[in-house]
Task: structure prediction
Amino acid sequence: MLCPNSGSKRSAFSLVELIVVMVILGLLAGLVVVQTRGYLIRSRQKIAETEIATLVSALETFYANENRYPSSDEGLEVLAQPSENYPEPYIRKLTKDPWGNAYEYFSPGSSGPYEVICLGADGREGGDGENRDFSSGTLGV
Result:
């Protein structure tokens, strides 16, 4: 019979080894989160660009039917309502930008008859990265 303490060693991890493994796993998880956040920011920016392009298309259709662009007072809301010359709304629903803010509309715009603006994640003018603004004038749509 062997006694539990009579020379046979049981192999196990020491506390230091477990802490090292946990630190390595934490670093890897942090790296994954940083990379995923970058993809999320870029995908939201692409959504904003696409939605601005859709709004520009609806504005051009509005102009073709009404022979004018909506005023700043009417805003983009007029695109979601039927008109005398066009029985269907130009867009089904006026959406908010990917960060939950309303798209801004100005007529006349800074470089054309109108301008549609998304103010980015911070909801304020200016900014870089996630806070970058998008405009129908700068997107070339």
Helices lie at 15-66, 136-139.
